[in-house]
Write a structure and sequence with these properties.
- By secondary structure, the chain is mainly alpha-helical.
- Helices cover about 50% and strands about 5% of the residues.
- A four-stranded mixed sheet has the order 2-1-3-4.
- The protein is globular and about 75 Å long.
- It starts with a helix and ends with a helix.
């Protein structure tokens, strides 16, 4: 049983078992999470969530569950939170939201906090690596579905559940696993909500298990469990497998707990879907070649893998749709040479979602002129590369004044991947750009968080910043 092995890992995990690389990654992920959450909490989606809580429960400020939902939604809404390329799941948004919500109410020290976060990350990476890409191709959003197990693992560790109770918790997580990718396609706030809901569901599961509520230990690999119900189909091809490949399951299960995968978590620099990042990076490279000579571009061709090629919204109408738009992401990168959150917000203020005849800003006009010239190709060879590769080739075709010449650039591994890593300095720089008035020297406390009382540290790092 997969659940039993995960439960055994969670219960027996000790701070002393954590490798130096994994420990450094967890602390860097904590910094990244705080920066993304602080900027994201004022977005419309989490604010609507908070207003709704106040209508449902006048005492919502004291609720662990509503706190976890708000934290999770806020830290995922900008699409800047960390993740894992093979598992295809955003981990930090769920894991840290769960741990922070619990730490505000319970006595948790720094070592216990770190243990819980690692338990959540490793659990999510294991299940995601086994289930994907089939799970994603079947229409599920892993941050919502697999994120529920992530939260359950974190909450089980913090509540000090025993082996039996942890099994029940994970079983209850599985039956609450939810999140559909249609939320992405419609440009709604539901995608961000998936993370908050996953954090809530995992905490509920842990408290229920603590008090004797039971859940199925076969929830992942049973005949009607998670893998067979949610990871054997492909809604695009219509093909259905009999079961998830047993060799794949055995490979990941045999390595589970021996080699900590948290070290391979990526950090995002661009507020767009991860599948778009390689095309963005190729476009940023080409921007330095063409500079401001947009008028010489005849067309732009993007050759990428199937999932990325499906992010083909040529007319985004809001932020949610923009984050999933490959044509607009590439057009912005080519015209502006940057795709940071502040630049995106300025472009939106200057009319990015308006009709072109209503736009006065020259940059926005150039973006809207260039976007329709972008042609997206599904390059089948890119689908066969190793798991974790997110390849994109961007080719700029020039007009007759340049004799029909072309420039192109290929990115195989998006920035942040272990083969193209983001440095700690880049994570801090990202934090500063997101929260320019925050005193980042306070973040040094994370280096020595093991001896901290987490409610006090959270107050210093998060709650004291307005």
């Amino acid at each position: 049983m997969i659940v039993k092995k995960i439960a055994d890992f969670i219960v027996n995990l000790k701070y002393e078992d954590i490798s130096d690389d994994a420990l450094k990654q967890i602390k860097l992920a904590f910094i990244d999470y705080i920066g993304v959450y602080l900027r994201g909490r004022n977005e419309m989606a989490p604010q609507i969530l908070k207003d709704s809580f106040s209508l449902m429960d006048h005492n919502y400020d004291n609720s662990i569950l509503t706190d976890a939902m708000f934290l999770g939604t806020s830290s995922h809404v900008l699409d800047l939170d960390d993740g894992h390329d093979v598992a295809s799941v955003h981990l930090g948004t769920v894991a840290f939201s769960t741990a922070i919500a619990l730490s505000r109410k319970l006595e948790v020290n720094g070592k216990e906090f770190i243990e819980a976060i690692l338990a959540g990350y490793e659990t999510g990476i294991l299940i995601g690596s086994i289930a994907n890409p089939n799970h994603r191709n079947q229409g599920f959003h892993s941050t919502g579905t697999i994120g529920t197990y992530v939260s359950g693992a974190v909450a089980s560790k913090i509540l000090r559940l025993n082996f039996y109770q942890t099994i029940q918790c994970l079983g209850l997580c599985g039956t609450q696993s939810a999140g559909l990718l249609e939320s992405d396609h419609q440009g709604t706030m539901a995608k961000a909500f998936h993370s908050g809901n996953a954090a809530r569901a995992g905490i509920v599961s842990a408290f229920l298990a603590y008090n004797g509520f039971t859940g199925p230990e076969s929830i992942i690999d049973g005949d009607e469990g998670f893998l067979k119900a949610m990871a054997i189909g492909d809604i695009r091809s219509g093909k259905t497998l009999k079961e998830v490949n047993s060799n794949k399951i055995n490979r990941y299960m045999n390595d589970f707990g021996k080699f900590l995968q948290t070290s391979d978590v990526y950090f995002k620099l661009y507020p767009f879907c991860r599948h778009i990042h390689s095309a963005i990076e190729s476009s940023l490279y080409l921007h330095n070649i063409i500079k401001k000579q947009y008028d010489v571009i005849e067309s732009v061709e993007i050759f990428t893998y199937k999932i990325a090629s499906e992010h083909d919204n040529y007319k985004p109408h809001n932020k949610e749709e923009l984050r999933q738009s490959l044509p607009y992401a590439v057009a912005i990168a080519l015209v502006c040479g940057e795709v940071g959150l502040t630049k995106i917000n300025y472009l939106i203020e200057d009319g990015l979602f308006k009709d072109i005849d209503e736009v006065e800003d020259e940059k926005v006009k150039e973006i809207k002129i260039l976007a329709p010239k972008i042609i997206i190709h599904d390059k089948k060879e890119f689908d066969s590369l190793e798991a974790g590769a997110r390849p994109a080739n961007v080719k700029i075709n020039l007009n007759e004044s340049f004799r029909g010449g072309a420039f192109e650039h290929t990115t195989i591994y998006s920035k942040g991947n272990k083969h193209n890593p983001v440095s700690p300095g880049e994570v801090i720089d990202k934090f500063r750009k997101l929260n320019p008035t925050y005193g980042v020297q306070k973040l040094n406390k994370i280096d020595y968080m093991e001896s901290s009382k987490m409610d006090e540290l959270i107050n210093v790092l998060i709650d004291s910043y307005e």
